[in-house]
Amino acid sequence: MDFHCHLDLYPDAKQIYTEALKRTEFVWLVTTSPKAYAATSRVLPATQKIFISPGLHPEIADKKHGELEMLLSQMNACTGVGEVGLDNSARYSQHFELQTHIFKSVVENAARLGGRVLSIHSRAAASRVLDILDANPGFGTAVLHWFTDSPSLLRRAARSGCWFSVGPAMMESANGRKLAALMPLDRVVSESDGPFAKMRGINVMPWEALSVALRLAEVWNISKEETSAVLNSNGLRLITLLTDQYS
Ligand SMILES: [Zn+2]
């Protein structure tokens, strides 16, 4: 299962899609803009296994903010939203206020619609992300993808009920392993974040997401089998939230 994948952005997306249908149980295909969501849904149709959601990636907020209204209306018909969020790292901080406006609008809309499952980017911005989520009870379920902020913010997110999606590339860094060790075991799912995430220079594939179990087992101090079982049962619960809870 892969709960955060930019499947449409692999160079050979159609082939990866066909292979993913065979080799995975579930892929959450997150898009980076409302127009990309519309185009991707035509080329790579949603199926029982491949869930596609509209998003507006904070890294391109300055270029795509004109599509915000389109995203809000796409949210009517889709129970998942992503990739959305905030990025306050040096490279993207000049548009942080614009990103905040977009993300707030999305979270408020999710609450108005009775709840949505959000796949959230929070690089150097987890505190602001959590402020916005906490101010909008009823927004649904937050899945913080590839969390890189501080341990104290991770604990705050866990207390707020957030889920976490973790991939093999995140577990390559000491900081990633330290954070994963602190996550609530019943709210962690696997992700690839491919093709952005790479291992030794090669794109992580959707069917490789679950290989994260091996590294999680080390930091959680339980067996690989137990870890896989935990990820599996968490994944099934999140699929239910995505496909039943808010529809
Ligand atoms: Zn992503």
Overview of this structure, please?
By secondary structure, the protein is an alpha/beta fold. The protein has a single domain, classed as Alpha-Beta Barrel (TIM Barrel), CATH 3.20.20. The protein is built from 10 helices and 10 strands. The protein has helices at 13-23, 34-43, 61-64, 68-74, 96-112, 126-134, 151-159, 174-181, 212-220, 224-245; strands at residues 2-5, 27-30, 50-53, 80-85, 116-121, 140-145, 163-166, 188-190, 198-199, 202-203. The strands form 3 sheets. The chain has a 5-stranded parallel beta sheet, with helices on both faces. It starts with a strand and ends with a helix.
Give short descriptive properties of this protein:
five-stranded parallel beta sheet; binds zinc ion; 247 residues; alpha/beta; three-stranded parallel beta sheet; 10 helices; TIM Barrel
How do the strands and helices of this protein lay out in sequence?
Layout: E1 2-5, H1 13-23, E2 27-30, H2 34-43, E3 50-53, H3 61-64, H4 68-74, E4 80-85, H5 96-112, E5 116-121, H6 126-134, E6 140-145, H7 151-159, E7 163-166, H8 174-181, E8 188-190, E9 198-199, E10 202-203, H9 212-220, H10 224-245
Parallel strand pairs: 1-2, 2-3, 4-5, 5-6, 6-7, 7-8
Antiparallel strand pairs: 9-10
Bound molecules: zinc ion.
Organism: Deefgea chitinilytica
Protein name: TatD family deoxyribonuclease
Pfam families: TatD_DNase (PF01026)
